[in-house]
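Input sequence (374 aa), recorded before submission:
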Amino acid sequence: MFGYAVRRLAGAVPTIFVVITISFFMIRLAPGGPFDQERKVPPEVEANLAAAYHLDEPLIEQYGRYLANILQGDFGPSFRYRDFQVSELLRDGFPVSMQLGLAAMILAVTLGFLAGSLAALKRNTPGDVAVMGLAMTGIAVPNFVVAPLMTLILGVWLSLLPVGGWGGLNHAVLPVIALALPQIAACAAVLPLKKLRIHSRTAENRERLAEAVRAQFDLDITLAGSVEEAVKDVPVITLVTNATEPFLTSDMVGRGVHINAMGAIVLARSEFATDIFPRCAVVTVDNLETIRNISSEFRAYYGEDENGWKQVRSMGSVIEDNITRLADADLTLFKAMGMGLSDMALACDILAKAREQGFGHPVPERIKTPPVLK
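Predicted structure, C-alpha cell format:
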C-alpha cells in the first residue's frame, strides 16, 4: 500500500508541472496586466512596479525564476492583495480549509453510513427510495450550485447563518454542509459488502468456496440450499457457473436487484432465463461483439432484433456517458463472458506452480494508469 501511494504521488509530479506551466503562460499572455484595474500612474511608477515584480524581464526568464522559487516554497508576491506573499495567504488560509475539510469528511461518513444502512434495512420501501433519490441528487448536483443556494436561503432570506467571515461555530455550518453533501450522498449510495450468501449444486462446493472467501475477507457468510433461498431479499446477485440450463428466473428476483452474470461463456451454457430482460432498466456487457456471438441468453432474447441490441450498452460506454442506476429501477444486468476470469484463474494457478518449482524470474510491477475515455 505504501509503495502504491508513493507511485501515485510520483505520478502526480508531471501533471502538477504541466498545470503550473500552462497556468503561468496563460496568465502572462492574456491581454492586460495585474495593475490595469488601478488608477492610471505615471510611466516611471509603472516601470518601477514592473521591475519590482520582475515583469520587465523576458517571459522565459520570468518562467525560470518562477519555477526556481516554487521549488523553494516561494510563490512570490500576490498581485491581488498588496503587501502579501502568496505563501502568507496559503499559510493563513490552510488551517481553516483543513478544519472545514475534516469536519465535512466526518459529517459525510457518519450521515452517509447511517442513511445507507437505513436504505439497506428498509429495501424497496418509501424510505429506501427516498434515501437513494436524495443520494443520486446529491451526487449529480455540484457544490458550486448547492453552496450559493444554501447561502441565499439560509443566510440571506432566513438570516439563520452568517454568509461570510470566520469566527464561531456558526460560521462553519454552511461551508461544512455544502462540502459534505456530495460525500454523504456517495456514502449512502455505496456501502461495503458485509454479507454473502453462497449456493452451489453440492454442499462440498459451497463449503469450499465459503472457506476460500473467509480466508481473504471478513464477511458474514451463509450457505443456501437452493437458488430461491440464495437470492431471496438480496440487493446483488452474482452468477459464476457452467450451467447448461437457465436456473435463475424472473419470479425469483425481487425488485431493485442488480445481477452480475459472469459464467456461461459458451453457447452450450446458460444461467438465467430470458424473462429477466424485460425487467432490466439497464443492460450492460463487457464486450458487445462477443456477447452477440456466443452468449446463449442474449442470442435467445434479442436474436436478429437490431433495435433491441441497441439497448445493450458496453461497460465503456456506460462509464463514458455517465449512465447511473435510477432509484426506481426494477432490475439492472451486467453480463461478462468470463474470458478474463478464466484466464486469470489459469494464470494464477500457473504462477503458483512456477513459484513452487523455482521457474521464471521476477518482472517489474505494472503501473496502472486511468483509462482515457474521450
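Checked by second reader. The chain has a mean pLDDT of 82.
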